[in-house]
């Protein structure tokens, strides 16, 4: 556990030298501003509508793609920066290092989602003051928190798959954006709303009303995405060749 925490600190220190965090924060702020500017009168008149409306915009167009970019970047950079050979000379298990990178990606998705919650909540407080009730704030907080969790699990297979390709982070960004926009159509009706991972996030978080059965199915879909990710990475680590790209031809 201590070694995992140390690796997490090392990965964080490496990220501080990267611009990807600044770009991500800027994208989150820009999305929140764009949604508000689209219809400011409606958000001013109705309490909680702004916090509610930002969720689908962020999930269909922002959080999945930028999370996939971040996660695949963390894994790709060891190969592209030619540091992978150096890491093999020190006692760091590759599976443990990859797990730490995925954990950092999970935290990244949570932080971005909660940053959106903070921006929207402060905006609602400024617009409506005491009219914004604590139960509403708590419900929105849980939804945004669940969104961050769901986004990570929904895009984790794409992170794992694209991370072993050259410039895989950009492939992950493009593929995930298409995948996310597909969720816009899947969310329109059942059964796609339940089984399509991006759309399943909304039932998992409680944003869309759903029966207990459908909600549990959505949770199982998201968990299955995470299980597939770790299975794929386990296969990659099990194969002891120097070039990981051949794995893509095996699957």
Task: Walk me through what this model shows.
The protein has helices spanning 2-15, 20-38, 40-45, 49-61, 63-80, 84-87, 94-128, 134-162, 168-186, 192-195, 197-205, 212-238, 247-250. It has 251 residues and is mainly alpha-helical.
Fill in the keyword field for this structure.
251 residues, mainly alpha, 80% helix, disordered C terminus
Q: What's a concise summary of this model?
A:
Helix content is 80%, strand content 0%. The chain is an all-alpha fold and 251 residues long. The chain is globular.
Please give the count of helices: 13
**Biggest sheet descriptor:** none
What is the approximate shape? globular
Terminal-residue CA separation:
32 Å
Give the class from helix and strand content and strand pairing: mainly alpha
State which percent range the strand residues make up.
Answer: under 5%
Topology order in helix (H) and strand (E) letters: HHHHHHHHHHHHH
Number of strands: 0
pLDDT < 50 stretches:
84-90, 244-251
Radius of gyration computed on alpha carbons: 19 Å
Global mean pLDDT:
84
Q: Helix proportion of residues, in percent?
A: over 70%
Topology (elements, then pairings):
Blueprint: H1 2-15, H2 20-38, H3 40-45, H4 49-61, H5 63-80, H6 84-87, H7 94-128, H8 134-162, H9 168-186, H10 192-195, H11 197-205, H12 212-238, H13 247-250
């Amino acid at each position: 556990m201590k070694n995992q925490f140390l690796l997490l600190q090392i990965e964080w220190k490496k990220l501080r030298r990267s611009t990807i965090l600044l770009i991500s924060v800027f994208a989150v702020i820009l999305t929140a501003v764009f949604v508000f500017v689209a219809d400011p009168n409606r958000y001013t008149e109705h309490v909680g509508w702004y916090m509610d409306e930002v969720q689908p915009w962020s999930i269909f167009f922002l959080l999945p793609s930028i999370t996939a970019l971040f996660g695949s970047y963390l894994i790709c950079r060891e190969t592209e920066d030619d540091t992978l050979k150096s890491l093999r000379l020190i006692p760091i298990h590759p599976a443990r290092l990859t797990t730490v990178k995925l954990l950092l990606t999970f935290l990244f998705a949570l932080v971005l989602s909660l940053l959106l919650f903070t921006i929207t909540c402060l905006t609602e407080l400024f617009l409506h003051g005491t009219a914004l009730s604590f139960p509403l704030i708590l419900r929105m907080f849980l939804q945004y928190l669940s969104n961050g969790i769901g986004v990570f699990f929904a895009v984790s297979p794409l992170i794992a798959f694209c991370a072993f390709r050259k410039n895989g982070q950009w492939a992950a960004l493009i593929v995930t954006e298409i995948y996310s926009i597909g969720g816009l159509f899947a969310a329109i009706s059942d059964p796609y709303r339940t089984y399509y991972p991006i759309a399943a996030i909304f039932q998992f978080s409680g944003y869309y009303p759903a029966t207990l059965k459908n909600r549990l199915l959505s949770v199982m879909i998201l968990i299955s995405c995470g299980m597939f990710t770790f299975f794929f990475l386990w296969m990659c680590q099990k194969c002891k060749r120097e070039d990981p790209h051949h794995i893509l031809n095996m699957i």
